Write the structure tokens for this entry.
Amino acid sequence: MVKENEVPASLEWRVNMPSGSSRILAPESRQTCRFFSRFQNLVTGIVLNIKDFFEKAWTLAVNEPKKVIHCLKVGLALSIVSVFYYMKPLYDGVGGNAMWAVMTVVVVFEYTVGSTLYKCVNRAIGTCLAGSLGIGVHWVASQAGDKFEPVILQASVFLLAAAATFSRFIPTIKARFDYGAMIFILTFSLVSVSGYRVDKLVELAHERVSTIAIGASICILITMILCPVWAGTELHHLISSNLEKLADSLEGYAAENFILDSSNHSNEKDSSKRLQGYKCVLNSKAGEESMANFARWEPAHGKFNFRHPWKQYLKVGASMRSCAYCIETLHGGINSNTETPEFLKKPLNDICMRLGTSSSKVLKELSSMIKMMKNSTKLDILVDEMNSSVEGLQNALKTFPSYQHIPTPDPATDEPPNGTKEPSLKPIALSLMEIVQMATLTSLLVEIASRIEGIVEEVKELATQAEFRDESSKKSKQTQTKLNGNDSNEHEVTMTTVQKV
């Protein structure tokens, strides 16, 4: 018997069946609830990830519509080249090797015109050269007899593949013909190996070369006609925007460190974006080199001639990175644990702010100069202002005292001594770390200004090689045209009066 106040160890439910028998029902298992809870969380996480993916894809498509257009161009090229496989007359014309045209489109169609031309030309050269050598080696091996034929073929594959692979380590060939060397190895190996079992090797090679030419031609036509993306134009805009970001970072760091009133600071998000702009310059080396390499394959387009000095853009980018490294060091000094006291900043505040502003103006003028491809009439004036600010900072550092007099109240009463209203002036020696911190920041500003002069020289060299337009000469031509027009009108008037007389 169970007492009233006792709780049984386990509860059991008994259901009386019509037959008089009973069955024990166990309590609901918790593992089932956990399984459904985990399954629900898993489904919810998958749905949220898919939603997040589509949101990011939509943002990318809105911000960069050129990439969406590139995807449509690839789809169009594949649709056109697939016709050779679906239509029987075209399929018979290419000998059943239409799939090589599809593979060519997939492999060589790139985002920019230069990269597509680079792959198409390299693939054509590598395929033709490897096919010709493969046919020649196959003929020589067939003349040597059945015993020596596989030996000659294997030896040729070994030697030419090793030589082509070694050529890929040479900097000049790696920069411009790396893809062609890889295609040469692939094509020669396929021709040599398959030629041992194929009788009509010349016909097979001709069909594959023709299909590759069809695929490459379709890619070139579509990428150059439908909304072309030129690698040279992208490089041009990248260098111009990096100069502007560098100017914003320099101006932001000068204001961040030498401004005394914290209420004058701008929005934290906007200022952080401006301050981190120099990182884009530091991380753009690989992109600049690839764009410059692809731009050399492109024909004349827009403002750029066929032999535009793309290598000079790399020199401008290298000069910008040397300046960005100094700004990165300046950023590390500002964010260090040692803070420069305000009574140290105050004597140098104005001159440092003026140097940062003048240096930023020079960089912005260089950015505008590259963007518009016009020689600037204000550049020399801005450089002189920057150099005068550097001289002013150096003179201020020479006259800067080794100690400062600051008010020191009496520690007992927290009031000025002797009952005076004015605090006493007591010489306080500066801490070594504070002096080093201030000297480092000012010396970095001077070093940044000197490296900006290097950027100016490289941009001027670019303007000379690319033949930037001169604003003054353009204005003089316009005035000369107007004067010539006025002179011709006056000459016509005089001639008509003479004829009347």
The chain has a mean pLDDT of 77. The two ends are 149 Å apart (CA to CA).
